[in-house]
Specification:
Elements lengths: L10 E8 L3 H14 L9 E2 L2 E9 L3 E10 L2 E10 L1
Antiparallel strand pairs: 1-5, 2-3, 3-4, 4-5
């Protein structure tokens, strides 16, 4: 992704969306990372969107797979965060 560092985290590695336009999916990802408070923060919901996160911790960083849903709309993304 050409702007992988513009989402408020170390790197957003991928974004996939179902029943959501690409621009709106990017907005959801940015909103998710604005909602998180700090490197280890979490964001369980964004208004009507419910989000779940699965983190894989390593030395000094973690990778996370995030899935946000609102009805049949789904936005998934993977990011890397230095801690």
């Amino acid at each position: 992704m050409r702007d992988s560092q513009s989402y408020g985290t170390t790197y957003v590695l991928s974004i996939t969306a179902r029943r959501v336009r690409c621009g709106k999916a990017r907005e959801r990802v940015r909103a998710f990372h604005q909602c998180r408070e700090g490197a280890r923060g979490r964001c369980p919901n964004l208004g009507r969107w419910n989000c779940s996160e699965n983190r894989d911790f390593g030395r000094g960083s973690f990778y996370s797979d995030v899935k946000c849903k609102k009805g049949r709309k789904v936005v998934k993304h993977r990011y890397n965060q230095w801690t």
